[in-house]
Amino acid sequence: MISLLVVIVLSFLSNFAVAQTPQTFWPSGVPLLVKSPYLNAWLPTRNNSNPLPPGVWPNFWTGSRILGWAGFVRVDGANYFWLGQTGPGNATVLTNTVITPTRSIFTVQAGPLELNITFFSPIEPGDLALQSFPFAYYYIDLASTDGQSHSVQLYSDISGEWASNNDASLLQWNTISNAVAVYHQFSRSASQSMQEVNNIAEDGTMYIGMAMRPGLTWQTGTDVDLRNLFNATGTLQNQQDVRFRPISKDGKDWPVFAIAVDLGTVQTISQPVVWTIGLVRDPSVTVNEGGNMTQRSSLYWTRWPKIDDGISNFLQDFPQAQQRANNLDSKIMNQALATPNTADLVSLGLRQVMAASEITVSKMSNGTFNMSDIGIFTKDVGFSRRTNPVEVAYASLPAILYLNYSIAKFVLKPILEFHSRHLSSVSFAMSDLGSSFPVSVPVISPSEIRGVEDTGSMLIMVLAHAMYSGDGSLIAQHYPLLKKWADYLVGNVFGPAGQRTSDASGVSTGQDAVNLAIKGIIGVKAMSKISEAFNQSQDAEQYNNHTTDLFTQWRAQAFQGGHLVSSFKDPSLGGVIYNLYADKLLRLNLVDDSVYQGQAAFYQDLVAKSSGKAGIPLVTGGETGRVDWSMLAAASVNNTITRNSMITLVHDHAGNNSTQGGLGFASTFVVETGRTTGPASASLGSMFSILALDLPSQNIIIPPPASEAPNEQIASSHRGLSKGSIAGIVIGLLILLAFVVAGFLFWRRRRLTRESPGALENATFEPFSLTGPENVGRVPVFSGDSRMLTPVHPPTSTVFSSFPPSSSGDETSRRETEMLRTDVQELRREMERMRLAVEPPPEY
Ligand SMILES: *[C@@H]1O[C@H](CO)[C@@H](O)[C@H](O)[C@H]1NC(C)=O
Ligand SMILES: *[C@@H]1O[C@H](CO)[C@@H](O)[C@H](O)[C@H]1NC(C)=O
Ligand SMILES: *[C@@H]1O[C@H](CO)[C@@H](O)[C@H](O)[C@H]1NC(C)=O
Ligand SMILES: *[C@@H]1O[C@H](CO)[C@@H](O)[C@H](O)[C@H]1NC(C)=O
Ligand SMILES: *[C@@H]1O[C@H](CO)[C@@H](O)[C@H](O)[C@H]1NC(C)=O
Ligand SMILES: *[C@@H]1O[C@H](CO)[C@@H](O)[C@H](O)[C@H]1NC(C)=O
Ligand SMILES: *[C@@H]1O[C@H](CO)[C@@H](O)[C@H](O)[C@H]1NC(C)=O
Ligand SMILES: *[C@@H]1O[C@H](CO)[C@@H](O)[C@H](O)[C@H]1NC(C)=O
Ligand SMILES: *[C@@H]1O[C@H](CO)[C@@H](O)[C@H](O)[C@H]1NC(C)=O
Ligand SMILES: *[C@@H]1O[C@H](CO)[C@@H](O)[C@H](O)[C@H]1NC(C)=O
Ligand SMILES: *[C@@H]1O[C@H](CO)[C@@H](O)[C@H](O)[C@H]1NC(C)=O
Ligand SMILES: *[C@@H]1O[C@H](CO)[C@@H](O)[C@H](O)[C@H]1NC(C)=O
Predict the structure, then answer these.
(1) What is the pTM of this model?
(2) 774 part of a folded domain
(3) What are the Glutaminase A central domain coordinates in residue numbering (predicted)?
(4) Does 668 share its domain with 719?
(5) Which of 401, 341, 412 is nearest to 686 (CA)?
(6) Ligand 11 atom 7: the closest Cα is on which residue?
(7) Ligand with an atom nearest the CA of residue 528
(8) 143: Cβ below 6 Å to ligand 5?
């Protein structure tokens, strides 16, 4: 009986063309076009929506910016609207909503016609350049329900509201019409580069387009005029309104950009009618490192140097894109269906995970793109403008690994490279790369308040990427940094007191210490595996020994009364120990079964106590719950009933349309009221926590360091030179480089000693100018960063355990000699490794 049901559901999913099952999942917002941090449109589907969807204005993920976007269908001269609040004619009647990982499909009835309106934001895990293309499709299939043919015209427009947060902003626009396509483009006349206001980009150029086809007409003009014209005639006049004006004046006179299609008299259509909407920005991210500005463009520019070619390609590629989406949706749904209620969650969450990021590449000084420098920059969508927030990457990792483990490399690269370049002397990982997205101004916070959290996350993510992709390149490039981080964890997992999980965690300091400590310990164990992969057996053994010690201590204090407590200090507190998930994901088997079993029983009890509430709190008795972390915790539970009941709670909350908050799937909620914060965050990638546990792991291959050839990831990886001849060149260059580097290091150490004889901690940082009284001490803040005056984290009295408070000149020079020696040894080891690596193995 059940298997029959599964077969029916599966066949439904594979072709989307079987009788509709009644809708059972009712989120308070449905993703429409969710493709980038700035192209992120949702349909409000709150129970109190007025009027009812689909006749509601779409909104930005914040829920506080209407995105004017209208849709009409005219049947035998009678007009109906299927998107947007008003218009001439009656509303269509919404009969069903289906949400898949790539699409939201609304079925509506317009008189004698049934329409399926599909909003399709492609997810392209096999092609990052395509994934970075900031366009999405929406398309309509239709059929008459009375067996008769009807005269049918379709219409859609968007308003200037998409191009700026401020309706007074002056717009300019143009329409391109050629043999391939018709598209309107518009932007602010005074585009504000790299600016956003209330999360809306002020430097975007908007597009709405359609592939050329019979019956297509277009027009730009005032909303009322064009919609009434369509209502009256079913066509537009292929004319541009050249009176450039603001988005609106006094709530009137909105210029809109419309495309309509006259289908003639039909019963059904064989191909859908397809529009596209896009939001183009270039550069998409700027990185400001100590005043050195690097502008980064979205990766698709490397394929389509002219946006017009990109748009034409996107429109022509629709059938293939739809096929790829069918395949991806079926794959995800088939696997998600194995766990009750998970399919809805992965479907609602995935688009916003991908849309929170810009996939970027930098240019070389001669203007050519540097294909060795691809990096993903994620916005802390839902909470702040932080760039590459580490805790969000950690929570999103299950989805990223699931889609394509290689993508994780580009998520981690910008963070690792920044630390290796500029913070080689700081012993812990930073929380992010600044807090003014899309401008990244990385700053090291003066406090270690999240040192264990972010350092643990980074080591866990680096190993996860390596073991699932088999790609050891990040390990090879950053081994010394990773080791330093692990050493920090060894000394700090149980303190200093006051370390915290994340800014948005909703728990007070120390309440989450058990969860935090186990993340740090798993991080140390991950380092042991990393060392093993890097053939540093001594290190591997050492970190393994540390793990054993730390875990023994942790278990003795954390496992009390048959389950894990949350706080070492207050055994009465229990909670969601979601970092146990990393033990499962990395297949470490560090934590023993009895802990998992005790914790499962405890969660079952929490679930029972949460009846009538929006979910389980992070800490018993606490106000805040997190669906992202609950989902990680659920996946760590080895008890199907408990796991499923935890997922059901998340599902019921996510599918509750009376919930208030932003429109995107939100990560955080108030346990009593269900009110949400953190909508549209990438951290909802944690909905894939169970799916990711089934991924096959691979042997980690450490590449020769010189193999980081241009185009490594995107183009074919064949290299022209044989390994042998490269070896010769490389070794020659390396010897030269070794002398240069050694000489430079020596010179630098000496110079720093002379310039700041008494302050070792200044000498250990890269020599950025540290100006301003607030930077006295050991806080490296880049000059030119306006946030210097308002640090993200409040300074605390926490002492950097890794730096001596201050030292005499003698001590300084002794330490420097030591450091120099370490550097040279490091270099020698590196050379040895490269020699081993480039020497062709026997089978060549
Ligand atoms: C809200 O969800 C309920 C089911 O819980 C459903 O009947 C109702 O139609 C939904 N409201 C909207 C506006 O979608
Ligand atoms: C829309 O068209 C209908 C039928 O042609 C007409 O009766 C109605 O007045 C029109 N509405 C507007 C606002 O033009
Ligand atoms: C529009 O709605 C009105 C009021 O419900 C109804 O009388 C009219 O027949 C509808 N028109 C069409 C074309 O469905
Ligand atoms: C994963 O991404 C990489 C890099 O973009 C690409 O080369 C590879 O083909 C992708 N793999 C799959 C299975 O899509
Ligand atoms: C709309 O989609 C449903 C499946 O969700 C299908 O049964 C129906 O035939 C489709 N209708 C049209 C007009 O394509
Ligand atoms: C800025 O770039 C210059 C030239 O590439 C380099 O010498 C300098 O160290 C860089 N400064 C920082 C803070 O990265
Ligand atoms: C720019 O420099 C790179 C590497 O130095 C080279 O491969 C490329 O051909 C150059 N491009 C142009 C346009 O000169
Ligand atoms: C290209 O990027 C890589 C990785 O960041 C960097 O090491 C290299 O110097 C860059 N090449 C050029 C020519 O800028
Ligand atoms: C690992 O290190 C050992 C000892 O240094 C060496 O004998 C062995 O060849 C190395 N293995 C690899 C795969 O590099
Ligand atoms: C690890 O622990 C074992 C057993 O206690 C000990 O023999 C070994 O020397 C330790 N290794 C390191 C590197 O500390
Ligand atoms: C659950 O525990 C049992 C017994 O310890 C083990 O065989 C099984 O693999 C575990 N399942 C999961 C999903 O971890
Ligand atoms: C939706 O609203 C209706 C009418 O206001 C109410 O009866 C119903 O309980 C609400 N449903 C939910 C899930 O809030």
Answers:
(1) 0.85
(2) no
(3) 343-690
(4) no
(5) 401
(6) 638
(7) 10
(8) yes
